Amino acid sequence: MSQAEERHLRSLTAAEAEGDERAVEAALRPRSLAEVIGQTRVREQLDLVLEAARRRGRAPDHVLLSGPPGLGKTTLAMIIAAEMSTPLRLTSGPAITHAGDLAAILSGMNEGDVLFVDEIHRMSRPAEEMLYMAMEDFRVDVIIGKGPGATAIPLEIPPFTLVGATTRAGLLPGPLRDRFGFTAHLEFYEPHELDEIVRRSAGLLGCELETEGSAEIASRSRGTPRIANRLLRRVRDYAQVRADGVVTRPVARAALELYEVDESGLDRLDLAVLDALCRRFGGGPVGISTLAVAVGEERETVEEVAEPFLVRSGLLARTPRGRVATPAAWAHLGLPAPSQVPGAPAGPTLFGG
Q1: Under 8 Å between Cβ of 32 and 82
Q2: Is 29 marked active-site?
Q3: How are beta strands 114-118 and 161-166 bridged, if at all?
Q4: Contact yes or no for 295/268 (Cβ under 8 A)
Q5: How many helices (H) and strands (E) does the chain have?
Q6: Closest to 161 in 3D by CA, of 79, 53, 60
Q7: Any catalytic annotation for residue 74?
Q8: How far apart are CA 122 and CA 125, in angstroms?
């Protein structure tokens, strides 16, 4: 066992002893680029950026990581700091509500430090404008006083690396986006990559896992490592309590059925949305607010948690008139699809057909 694996094992043992799920999840994260599975192109590009910075003896360019939740943006930020052997400061966009908040963070930075700002698109506008100067010139102007008597005091900042993460890159202003020297978009993982991640995590957790069992978990993980690791821990619990501790395909299937995760990775909320859309509203079109009321959830929950995966899976479509169930959605629920696709124009069109 390598030293890195031993450190992982010690971290996991301590976290599990405290019963801290978040600590267990953190302990499963890769600690270096060499340990990262998947995201081959991003990993190769980032390795080049960091190696060049090390050879020059300077802080790497600012890095922007975008992509859906759970794909490893925070993990990559931690790896950047570890690869450069520098401290990592963590904060989030919503926590920086005033320019003074950002000034306080930046004033405590040392040369070469890595500052990670999660959900950077949600930072306040005054703080965002202060960040422009900090990223380019490594200084900020702190305003003392108000009105005509206000005075701007320049504050020099040691060279640092900003790592910004966002799930909605389109909301980032152009001036901020352009100040990042390296940008990367993380893609969803392939099943074979998730299978490798599940097997690696099982080894760290000391969980006995058969090949077919890991493949079953990976196939239901929605292309997301965070979900894969979460499902693995739940399947491990099931195997320890209701089986002989070995995760086989039948054990994995029984556990995931208990936790309401179907063969396509759809959970209770996803199935509730599809069921309401097809059974109650005839396949749509129906507004997202109406759909949320029908399943007893907030609009934001349906729109941000369930809808993206349903659209990506080809089970739901967005139209100008509302959400529509696709033929695949009807088939998934075992229901006969209507002869006329909801939301489609009825009768002949201008071009015939």
Answers
A1: yes
A2: no
A3: parallel
A4: no
A5: 16, 11
A6: 60
A7: yes
A8: 9
Pairwise CA distance, residues 103 & 125, whole Å: 14
Kindly report the number of other CB atoms within 10 A of residue 223's CB atom: 21
Question: Which pTM does this prediction carry?
Answer: 0.80
* Residue 350, C-beta contacts closer than 8 angstroms, at least 6 positions apart: none
Q: Is 301 exposed, middle or buried (0-12, 13-18, 19+ CB in 10 A)?
A: middle
Paired strand residues for 245: none
Tell me the pLDDT of the chain (353 aa) as tens digits. 455 555 554 454 444 544 555 666 667 888 888 888 888 899 999 999 999 998 988 888 999 999 888 898 999 999 999 988 889 999 888 888 888 788 888 888 888 889 999 998 888 888 888 888 888 888 877 766 566 666 667 778 888 999 999 988 888 888 888 889 899 999 999 999 999 999 998 888 888 888 888 999 999 998 899 999 999 999 998 988 888 888 889 999 999 989 988 888 888 888 888 888 888 888 878 888 888 888 888 888 888 888 888 888 888 888 888 888 889 888 888 888 776 655 444 444 444 44
Do residues 326 and 317 lie in contact, with contact meaning Cβ atoms separated by under 8 Å?
Answer: yes
Active-site residue 118, yes or no? yes
**Catalytic choice (73, 89, 200, 323):** 73
Cβ-based neighbour number of residue 100 at 10 Å = 14
Q: Exactly one of 199, 226, 230, 253 is catalytic; which is it? A: 226
Which of these is catalytic: 31, 43, 75, 118?
118
Tokens of 33: 């680029």
Residues 147 and 118: beta-carbon distance below 8 Å:
no
What's the token pair of residue 74? 């925070």
Q: Are 117 and 96 in contact (CB under 8 A)?
A: yes
